[in-house]
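Support reply, case 0932

Customer input (verbatim):
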Amino acid sequence: MNEIHCPQDLRRLSGAELRQLSGEIRSLIIKTTSENGGHLASNLGVVELTIALHYVFPTLNDRIVWDVGHQAYTHKILTGRRERIGTIRKDGGLSGFPNRAESPYDPFTVGHASASISAALGLAQGKLLAGEPGNVVAVIGDGALTGGMAYEGLNNAGRFPGNFMVVLNDNTMSISENVGSIAGYLASIRTKPGYLRAKGRIERFLDHVPLIGAPLHRGISHAKATLKKLLYHGTLFEDMGLRYYGPFDGHNIEKLIEVFENTKSIPSPVLIHVMTSKGKGYSFAEQDPGAFHGVSPFDVETGETPSSSDSFSSVFGACLCELAEKDRRICAITAAMELGTGLTGFAAQFPDRFFDVGIAEEHAVTFSAGVAATGQLPVCAVYSTFLQRGYDQILHDAALQNVHLVLAVDRAGIVGEDGETHQGIFDAAFLGTIPNLTVFSPVTYDDLRADLRCALYECGGVVVVRYPRGRQLFKPHDYLTSRSLYGQRDGETAQVALVTYGRLFSYAYQACEALRAKGLAAVAYRLDPISPVSEETVKQITFVKEIFFFEEGAEQGGVGEHFEALLNRSGWRGAYHLRGIRGFVKHAPMLETLRKLGFDGDGMAEFVESECVTWQKRND
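Our regenerated output:
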């Protein structure tokens, strides 16, 4: 492995050496993820596939787009980043996903599912327009074919006037097992015994027939295509205009190289179907690929991770189960995130009321709205970063209908090591633009339980309960779960107010204690709900001459800007200071990122001291 510095180096290796390389890469991936956490099972499943792709498509003229991108660790190792792989997901280190700013071998920054075909087709079209040589390959799998955008891309790809390759990495999994008709369709391809037996016999026979010129070669190819058509009646992909080849063993490097070499020059779109095993080469990941999809640091010898404690996700799942026991109208919907959103217990306890719709957030929202229109109480659990895909559905199919639907938005705010593509920092801003919608943002587990009950039984229309990844932060000793505005009891004597929502209230409380120790009368206030914020709520703190708003979300269009507008409308004329997030946020541990953004207790106190007009006047 130490001799591989770029993809071109692969061509010097024999088949045995390529197989040895795959084992060395697996060992490195296991070691790295055991120390850093990350995506393990999906990366172990594509080692041979990645080696074969880079063997056949070795130059920067050829482009490979990885769907989702969480399975691109081998790709990074083979493209000059092996020595830095130990920094993956760390502050200042390699991203856990392909990133255009990181390497010329990453032609597209990706982190969400089902986008690879569209992006790769755009790259291929651009190369064709520019007259540039080279192939473009989209690698899609891990359940991404359950996403509608993949079919929008396939529909367009079938008409592309040149070579374009889609590699279907079929491992029967996304994070949990794949669901739906497409998963069943692929299974039928894999298990068609008559086709596979006949295909094997014909291929063995044809392997011994010498090819006498191009006409015979075309005749043999036509015969194989005719046999496939007769036995299998074609495929969905062929009906969409792509030539289908497969399925092939995704762990047979020599066979994959042969297939890619034979198909890379076909002057039309092709789809190569390969079968891989998620978690390949690490027994614990093979036995439970769902649990080892995304992992925290773990013990390589035992596969054990540090004992997990409560999190907002687990508290949400437990609370929803408690409510569903008493109310049969409650059902749960998720988009291939049963484990991540804490719904495993609900799925086991109420299988008839649990719906995993696959990687299809748009469909999940509209499906939930349809369920709600019948008088049921659907709770749709989705990560903040993936909810971005459902904006139109929330607006048009839910809010406009004024149906009673609860969106449980997990991973709201900074998520940490997954970085730019996964930070949940935009939902508060874009949800705030939608009418007939209420947004809660709890500080503590008790808040979450209360907000969920309120969302189900006290609110109408679309209600969002958004909460962060991981555990609750420091809980003030006198903190009370309450609606709307909560402030410390000595608030009316304050000169300065720190206003925020969600988990940042814990840090705002600490900042106020530090400021009061220095002689500045400061008080912390927490909003919940954060949308809509009533004018009555705003008026409760207009006695303060100076307000600092801290927002773990996009500053532009966020809650802080809306709060300032409400203050101005009320006639308040004090000094207002807003600290939110501008731009994208790179990967690093969550607490470290909050500190760098100035959202911990010390950072908030420092910001108040540096910007506070009251403080400066007192010290003049």
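We compared this against your earlier run and they match. Two observations from our side: Residues 186-197, 213-217 have pLDDT under 50 and may be disordered. The radius of gyration is 27 Å. Please reopen the case if you see a mismatch on your end.
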